[in-house]
Amino acid sequence: MILPSTVTVIKTMKKHLIAFQEYIGYKITFDRFDAVFYEQFVRYLTFDFPLMRRTILLKGLKVNTVGKTIKQLKTFIKDRIQKKVIPYIDLSSFKCLEEDVEGVFLDWKELSKIYHLDLSSNPCLIKYRDLFIVGCLTGFRFSDYSTLSLHHLKNGMLHVRQTKTGATVVVPLREDARKILVDKYEMSIPRVSMVNFNYYIKEVIKLASINEPLRISHKRGNKVLEEVRPKYAWISSHTARRSFCTNEYLAGTPSDLIMSVSGHKSETSFRKYIKADKIKKASMIKQLWDKQPGL
Fold first, then answer.
1. Best label site of 111, 113, 254, 260, fewest CB within 10 Å?
2. What is the distance between the alpha carbons of residues 272 and 8, in angstroms, rounded to a whole number?
3. How far is CA 31 from CA 19, 122, 194, in A?
4. Please, is 99 exposed, middle or buried when counting C-beta atoms within 10 Å of its C-beta (0-12, 13-18, 19+)?
């Protein structure tokens, strides 16, 4: 059984290939998949692939997005080879690029500000705030926390079959999440698109005055680009999941328990995802320093 999320990834890879085909002006066939094609394709995705951000045209994908496209293309080609649809192709030059991402998360103090934020003058934003808080309290992906309904709730636990992995997770329902899901919406949480969610949740976080400037760097080709924005401008649907994992880790929750919800397969990838080791170690050092005599 092919999961819907897998179909989405394949369609995205196909869209990138079609765009590249139009860019180079000739048809892409299996016999063109060589080292030269790889270099040209990666260069196109990195610097020339057009992106529409509402009314703004941007060019170039982030390193990890390029890497995911190459990974899916390799998987597709290997499947065709295995099924003897095409002859063997040497894919050793097809490197799956990866960048260590600087992820943004919101701590408990910030989440409390958002949870208690008075949105009576902006009632259209309430459902986006509520959805976001539910994501921060469950650790689910947007595809899972935005589609919760009554059949997911059993004996005070959320039983959810993850859209991306197909695995079923069981998560206790926190009291604050219960007030939103059960008391407020009776487990019929409003449905919104991810595009609208990512746009309006920034407005919510902005109204909560979470606006300190943050510098985020990412690679494009062999260059490291840095950009400074207010913190609310970096928030997206995925921030909820990252905030859950990071806050639980900093609170001392065992990694294997957090991973049972997040779906990470190894603690190495989990620690890489949360970016909390430095924060935790700095906090531990501070606690030791606080006990030491000062000058």
1. 254
2. 25
3. 18, 56, 37
4. middle
Find out whether 262 and 105 touch, Cβ atoms under 8 Å.
no
Work out the number of other CB atoms within 10 angstroms of the CB of residue 155.
8
For 65-114, write each residue's pLDDT tens digit. 899 999 999 999 999 999 999 999 999 999 988 876 667 899 999 999 99
Look-up of token digits 């765009």: 19
Domain boundaries defined on the chain: 4-82, 108-287
Dist CA 53 CA 44 (whole Å): 19
Residues 56, 147: Cα–Cα separation, whole Å: 30
Alpha carbon distances (Å) from 251 to 34, 136, 184, 258: 49, 14, 28, 11
Tens digit of each residue's pLDDT (9 = 90 or more) over 14-63: 999 999 999 999 999 999 999 999 999 999 999 899 887 667 777 888 88
11 close to 76: Cβ distance less than 8 angstroms:
no
With H, G, I as helix, E, B as strand and everything else as coil, classify residue 217: strand
Return the SS3 of 184.
helix
Q: Which fold has domain 108-287?
A: hpI Integrase; Chain A (1.10.443)
What is the bridge-based pairing of β-strands 213-220 and 223-230?
A: antiparallel
Report the sign of the C-alpha dihedral through residues 164, 148, 274, 212, in that order.
Answer: positive
Whether pTM exceeds 0.70: yes
Inter-helix orientation angle 126-138/108-115, to 10°: 150
Residue 19 makes CB contacts below 8 A (sequence gap 6+) with 49, 50
**Cα three-residue angle 148-158-237, rounded to 5 degrees:** 50
* Token output for 69: 């496209």
| Tokens 């293309």 -> residue | 73
Residue pair 143/164 in contact (Cβ under 8 Å)? The answer is: yes
